[in-house]
Design brief:
Layout lengths: L26 E3 L1 E3 L11 H8 L20 E3 L1 E4 L2 E4 L6 E3 L14 E6 L5 E5 L5 E2 L4 H11 L7 E3 L22 E3 H10 L3 H9 L4 H16 L17 E2 L1 H11 L3 H7 L3 E5 L4 E5 L3 H5 L4 E9 L3 E10 L2 E10 L2 H16 L6
Antiparallel strand pairs: 1-6, 2-3, 4-5, 7-8, 7-17, 9-12, 10-11, 13-14, 15-16, 16-17
Helix pairs in contact: 2-5, 3-4
């Protein structure tokens, strides 16, 4: 390891667990106390490059995992109509979304805009409906990989099974059987370029193999309160990977606690030097590539059953926010919906 390398940062705090209501579409407000600066901890370009160049030892944590120490205390109240029901130890406040005037038109099948600091849902369309999520799956793949604290400099060789896909779907247009890279590059390929063999290789090389990895994905979803979510594989090619927009809002909030996921999912472009060839790769989200928005987490997705999807953690008018789009007809429609929602949310007051 290079002597000049900075000590890697550890983000303190715990993932916010958003409680879900069994009632219809509603807003959730979380009143929490804790370290408000934890989400602003970020890796430098130097630190990310060290991972990609294999300069991190097996004993070095290669990400920021939420720590049980300094965990967030949540107080909630469940409100329906004029009555309120106290619940312990967490409470959820349900507000009428009609309090927000001039809500934008969204063409996608489902959508969500949530205040990432308070948990308040600002906009929702079919937000509780479980739908196929395609490569949005890879965000959970990244979280499970990070939680395992594996050696990010370990070399991984892509195998034929990583290209098998699901139902005969095309698995990759770039990678080949036999390609070798370190685990950090595999994770970057999965998050930035949404390469399916990369996500498959992360599951295959997990302790206990693919079966254990898929079980860990579903266990993590349950621990976060993602009640409508189910995973059967790690790439998103299988339409049986499903979640609601609200569940994905929870996942994005949790993923934002991991510095490496923030860094890799929003990398605009990267040249992967495999030694025998260089793969010039761009982020699948044009809103990240164009740089017009302050996007902290990004993941796109597409299979026929899911349509065009995207999740983002961004900052709108100094308010951290989560944006979820599921089931848009095409990429332009997905981007138009996202921009329309972000422009609208940028004009909202911070408290209602």
């Amino acid at each position: 390891m290079k002597n000049t390398k900075k000590a890697l940062m550890n983000a303190l705090g715990a993932s916010l667990l958003l409680c879900m209501s069994s009632t219809g579409f509603a807003e959730i407000v979380m009143n929490s106390s804790g370290n408000s600066n934890q989400a602003n901890i970020s890796w430098s370009s130097e630190e990310a490059n060290l991972l990609l160049n294999g300069d991190v030892s097996a004993n070095t944590a290669a990400y920021s995992e939420p720590s049980p120490k300094g965990s967030v205390n949540v107080t909630t109240t469940v409100r329906s109509g004029s009555s309120a029901v106290q619940a312990a130890p967490k409470t959820v406040q349900i507000l009428d979304t009609s309090s927000y005037s001039n809500q934008p038109s969204v063409n996608a099948r489902a959508a969500l805009v949530m205040d990432a600091q308070t948990g308040e849902v600002l906009f929702g369309k079919n937000a509780n409906t479980a739908l196929p999520i395609a490569s949005l799956t890879k965000l959970m793949t990244a979280v499970v990989t990070a939680d395992a604290r594996l050696n990010m400099s370990e070399q991984i060789t892509l195998q034929q099974i990583d290209f098998a896909g699901a139902g005969g779907k095309n698995s990759s247009s770039t990678l080949r059987v036999g390609d070798k890279m370190n685990r950090a590059e595999v994770l970057l390929f999965a998050l930035m370029k949404s390469e399916n063999p990369a996500a498959a290789a992360l599951a295959r090389t997990y302790p206990g193999g693919r079966t254990a990895f898929f079980a860990a994905m579903n266990a993590k979803a349950r621990s976060l309160g993602m009640s409508s979510t189910h995973y059967v594989e790690s790439s998103g090619l299988d339409p049986r990977n499903v979640a609601s927009a609200r569940d994905l809002g929870i996942l994005v909030t949790a993923a934002s606690q991991y510095s490496l996921i923030r860094q890799f999912s929003t990398t605009p472009s990267y040249d992967f030097n495999l030694g025998y060839r260089v793969l010039k790769s761009n982020n699948t989200n044009a809103l990240v590539r164009n740089g017009g928005w302050n996007i902290n987490i990004s993941k796109t997705g597409y299979i026929n059953e899911a349509g065009r999807c995207v999740v983002m953690h961004t900052t709108l008018n100094n308010r951290p926010a989560v944006v979820v789009i599921l089931g848009a007809n095409n990429t332009q429609a997905r981007n138009d919906d996202a921009v329309r929602l972000m422009n609208w949310a940028s004009q909202l007051p911070k408290r209602v």
